[in-house]
Write a structure and sequence with these properties.
The protein has 350 residues and is an alpha/beta fold. The chain is built from 12 helices and 14 strands.
């Protein structure tokens, strides 16, 4: 179990990390200005108002298996949830964005740079947390994360200090000099996050970061993901646990069997025109009266979900209950969960 750090230690780590991010951002901005608005690779730079990830006609097949099918994407900066069941194509999409896999067709860009033609340019601006175990068992977390910082472009003199700061941030301050072979699953997940963010990337791709964690470890990981936005990083959070996405993300990319189902803000996906009514009495008279007004009504015991194409559903329900004498327990706007939407989309595409 990770020991609880003092508030002073955590605050110092957060402040140092934020300062480093600001310094790195200003260095990049000055460099870009000197190159006439290009990034250090001489390629077109995206802005916060632009899409940070785009895909057009993206396909990927492995033999007879179609992992991605005609995916078109435009994703803005922020915390993006990449959702879908196991085998939906989430990991394949991430690896194509990193230039680790070549698509069978179509193109992708990250910050306006082709992931296929300039993969190293993309990776210089991106951090990646893979799903699988990727650590040598006989190496310490401090050494590995320091080496990752050097690979990310930090000078050797800064890498070890930066590694120490980031390992403190993710809760591994006291464990950073232990070998990975002694780490629990939760500690390895924290270390994978540390190596993904140690070089202060603009975008972090997290592939099932909460996989294999106990409830306390999952809670800690979700809190860490929420913090990344404070450092100016965009996040793509891949998960099949829809509740985790709802807690951390403001944009959702939804995949099913390689096809794109949704690509829009979470608030828009969860928006619903339905009114949920819980009745005290037998619902049949109220249901029949509402349906005669053109309402769509779904019934579960004495709970009704009512949608009305035109007019005020609340007023219609009030009038119907008054006319039929059916008792009312409660009434309010129905909250649609991401799971509800995913299951409905999945059923529609079958």
């Amino acid at each position: 179990m990770v020991r609880t750090l003092s508030a002073r230690v955590v605050f110092r780590a957060l402040l140092t990390a934020a300062t480093h991010c600001q310094q790195l951002f200003h260095r990049r901005a000055r460099y870009a200005a000197g190159r006439g608005g290009t990034n250090p690779h001489g390629l077109a730079s995206g802005t916060m108002a632009d899409s940070i990830i785009t895909a057009a006609g993206l396909n990927k097949s492995f033999g007879d298996v179609q992992a991605l099918q005609d995916v078109d994407l435009e994703v803005p900066a922020g915390r993006i949830g990449l959702v879908g069941a196991n085998g939906a194509g989430k990991s394949t999409l991430i690896k194509i964005l990193l230039g680790m896999l070549k698509p069978s067709g179509g193109v992708t860009e990250v910050y306006g740079t082709s992931a296929q033609r300039h993969p190293l340019a993309v990776r210089s601006r991106v951090g990646y947390m893979p799903e699988g175990d990727c650590f040598p068992p006989d190496q310490t977390a401090a050494d590995f994360v320091s080496y990752s910082a050097e690979l990310g472009g930090l000078p050797a003199s800064e890498s070890r200090q930066r590694a120490s700061e980031v390992l403190t941030l993710v809760g591994l301050a006291e464990e950073r000099f232990r070998n990975f072979g002694e780490f629990s699953t939760g500690m390895k997940q924290r270390a994978k996050l540390a190596q993904a963010i140690v070089h202060s990337p603009e975008l972090v791709l997290l592939d099932e970061p909460a996989s294999g964690l106990d409830p306390d470890g999952r809670e800690d990981m979700l809190n860490l993901i929420n913090r990344l936005g404070d450092f100016g990083m965009s996040v793509v959070f891949s998960s099949h646990v829809l509740g985790d996405i709802e807690r951390t993300c403001d944009w959702v990319v939804m995949l099913n069997e390689g096809r794109l189902l949704r690509n829009e803000p979470l608030a828009d996906i969860r928006a619903s025109n339905a009114v949920q009514v819980v009745l005290l009495d037998e619902p049949t008279p109220a249901v029949e009266a509402l349906e005669s007004l053109g309402a769509r009504v779904s019934v579960t015991n004495r709970t009704l979900d009512v949608e009305l194409e035109s007019g005020d559903a609340f007023v219609a329900i009030r009038d119907v209950l008054a006319e039929t004498g059916v008792g009312l327990r409660s009434m309010g706007s129905k909250e649609t969960t991401l799971e509800d939407v995913y299951l409905a989309e999945e059923e529609f595409t079958q």
